[in-house]
TrEMBL record:
It is found in: Mitochondrion. This is Oxidation resistance protein 1. The keyword Mitochondrion applies. Keywords: Mitochondrion. It comes from the Eukaryota. Residues 1-89 form the TLDc domain. The keyword Zinc does not apply. Belongs to the OXR1 family. Pfam families: TLD. It comes from Arachis hypogaea (Peanut). GO terms for cellular component: mitochondrion.
Amino acid sequence: MDWFQMLVITFQVVGDRIGAVFGSLVEVPLRPSNKKYQGTNSTFVFTNISSHPVIYRPTGLNRYFTLCNIEFLAIGGGSHFAVYLDGDL
C-alpha cells in the first residue's frame, strides 16, 4: 500500500435551504462495492442542533460504517442509515 492511500480522509458536508448542516468523516478510501461495508470505528456522522455541532460516533454494536456503490453513499448502519446521499441530492 502506498503512503498516500493510508492518509485518505473523506469529509462530506451537506446543507439544506433552511440552514441544517450534516455530514460524516470516513478515514478510508471509498471504493464502490455492492455488498461490502467499509470504514473503521473512527467513522462518525455529525449535524447541527440549534447551531451547536453534535457528533454521533459508532456504538460498537456492529461494523456497518460506510456503504458505497456507484449509485449512493450511505454512512451508518443497523436499522437505518444516518446519512444517505444519492443522485437526487
